[in-house]
Design goal:
Blueprint lengths: L1 H15 L11 H14 L2 E5 L7 E7 L2 E11 L19 E2 L2 E3 L7 H16 L6 E9 L10 H7 L1 H4 L3 E4 L5 E4 L2 E10 L1 E2 L2 E6 L3 E2 L13 H10 L8 H11 L6 H11 L1 H7 L6 E8 L6 E2 L2 E10 L5 H12 L5 E4 L6 E2 L5 H13 L4 E7 L5 H7 L4 E4 L8 H4 L9 E3 H18 L2
Parallel strand pairs: 3-6, 3-7, 7-19, 9-18
Antiparallel strand pairs: 1-2, 2-6, 4-5, 5-20, 8-9, 9-17, 10-15, 11-15, 11-16, 12-14, 13-15
Helix pairs in contact: 1-3, 1-14, 2-3, 3-14, 7-8, 8-9, 11-14
Bound molecules: zinc ion.
The site of zinc ion has 5 residues, from loops.
Length: 433
Amino acid sequence: MADLQQETTELLQRLIRFDTVNPPGREREAQEYLRGYLEEAGFECELLALDDARPNLLARLSGEQEGPTLGYLSHVDTVLATPEEWSHDPWSGDLDDGFVWGRGALDMKSQTAAEAVAAASLARAGWRPARGELLLMCVADEEAGGTFGAQFLTEQHPDKVRCDYLINEGGGGVFEWDGTRYYGVCCAEKGVFRFSLTTDGVAGHASIPRMGDNALLKMAPLLERLAERQPGLDVGPEPKAMLAALTGDGADDPRAAVERLRERDPFLALLIEPTLGVSVTPTRISASEKINVIPSRAELQVDCRVPPGLGEKEARARIEEVLGPDGYRLEFLERVVGNRSPAESPLVDEIARWIDEQDPGAQLMPTMLPGFTDSRWFRNTFPDCLAYGFFPHRHMTIHEQMPLIHGADERVDVRDLGYAARFFHDLPQRVLA
Ligand SMILES: [Zn+2]
């Protein structure tokens, strides 16, 4: 098992050295490397691409009998990195102080590496599923929305990526509370209903302030409301269960429960708070193109995330609670409903069993991601697919890990690489038995 850790460390270092910053992505070299690695171990591989420079890798190990497909989904692209802010070159894959350093060390070349090494080690040892198949999907373009990656695969090649069970990113981090260690298993993701607000006025020469009717000034009260208020709550089952486990209640007064949590663990409160309801975050504003022209129109863009199950009507009602009904025009720029898989299922049971064996007394905690991952494409295309974010970390807590994701000095503890690889090694032997 020490070999799994060593081999995962080496593969991760290699993957980090492929610059797959998206845009532009350019994932081909990394994908061909992975294909070679998995083919040699006995996997049947193919690359499928919408853009030739950005293929997706499917690697399959089939059993003799029909059965479920267990999918391991990961993306090989990364966000950018600013080397001056780092203490190690972001594309060095340096091994230092017990960590592998570099962009993608957490999000998520580490998981790609752990899954590939675990799967290759099974295949090399002659293991084949008793029934069903193990399907590794290493995709492109997650960080820019999945057009060339998971969206392309699920829409254009659904028969090749159909899964009954799916393990993806977004969970597996550990935290301690009242002496109990909890591992998050990501069951749900919020939807995206970004919108623009437009105010109207009359253009005029800026040297005579009252000549026109300044549309930009009409944004002031809207921005103030956005700064002062948040919409009412829509608490789903995952945050409800989490607050109940950590604070003893939470169902009756989630806000009070979060405040109690904040007193003891502000970071945990920070993570849970946005999962309790619709969030509205203004991020961009524009008005006049010229400094000497009073704008006849101003536009504010707002990032809005909505709990799973709620649609445009509910989102709009929550937004109007904050902004009031008039003084602006609202237009939705995106309408993606959030998604979830049940917090209780055979796959969650297997994950819980594994954690119980490895870390006795530790508990699984269903979580909701305020953002989203490629799981949404799979849950939408295959409504029966049970999809969870789970990459178990034991040594680095979520408090240490989360600030590094998309940040400077992203790194992963090599012991966690071994830990995760063991999970990816054990799971197929149970699910595909
Ligand atoms: Zn990611």
